Amino acid sequence: MDKDKQFKEFFEGRMSEPEATVFCAWLNTEEGAAYLDSRIDRAWNSKRGNSNYPAWDSQTILQKINAEKAGYEQQKPDNKQAKEVNFSPRNHFPSWLSVAAIVALVVLIPFVFFKANNSGSTQQREPQPKIITRSNPSGVKSKFHLPDGSLVSLNSESSIVYQEDFAVNRNIELIGEAYITVAKDSLHPFVIKSSGLNTEALGTIFNIKAYANENSVEVLLVEGKVKVDNIDSNEALILVPGEKAVLSNERGDFEKKNGDITRETQWTQGVLEFKNQGFQEIFKYLERWYGVKIEVTGNMTKAKGLGKFQEGESLDNVLEVLSYSNYFNYKINKDTVFVDFNKD
């Protein structure tokens, strides 16, 4: 979904509580922080040039103060010296104040939003179910059971949000990637919302990849049967094992493709594999996998990487193998990797 649209819905209070929680989690990512910076820059630039304040008529103001203080009749000011003050708060709103407003609202809106949703008489409303968030930073993966017995493998830089009554309300919000084995329950459909797609299943196994900073959202079916709905276009795709639904974040295309179950789900076994993928994509994956920041110099536009690495492979070994065929130098300094494609 378009981030400007989500931003607007968030500030207008038109998001559900789980949606708002996921959006806040995204704002806390590196991409979310960059997006927020751009919003602040836009707010700042839109106010530049409007910060010229009118002339300050100090003589007239001083006469008014003296008149009040001494109790004497105010003398009429000299019209030649007095200057008319036409101050319009709206036209002269300080640019820094609008920027501060965005920052303050980003900090305060979750509290206001959830307070508004949960306010009111306890006699008129039942207590809202508690919202539960499970998340992993970069470099960390986890595996756990949901309250209904479903098993989730959650990848790095990923999070899921669900309600405390999940056993009877099996709805999840996902950012990132998760491999899910759904517990069978014909009375309670299992629905995952992820970046513009709703995936519904009764009892099945599938992988969803929905990172906010990638070009597409993918739902790969491993076992069973699922229906995938495009929220914006109301299109729906029914998948059988080996097929995947792909939503392009750039073009908005929504289509069914053949997937590679083994290769696309082996991350759950700790296996890394690249098949002639561009290094921009590879480095993004390695940043997420190892919890590092990779800084690149030189031209890597046409460079492709190839390699397969088993669980526990060190980042140093991975980069060493990838550098053989693509001639780049690298240096690891704590949590930062410097890569230079200008290798002689």
TrEMBL record:
It holds the Pfam family FecR_C. The chain crosses the membrane at residues 93-114. The keyword Transmembrane helix applies. PANTHER family: PERIPLASMIC SIGNAL SENSOR AND SIGMA FACTOR ACTIVATOR FECR-RELATED, PROTEIN FECR. Residues 139-227 form the FecR protein domain. Keywords: Membrane, Transmembrane, Transmembrane helix. Residues 272-339 form the Protein FecR C-terminal domain. This is FecR family protein. GO terms for molecular function: sigma factor antagonist activity. The keyword Cell inner membrane does not apply.
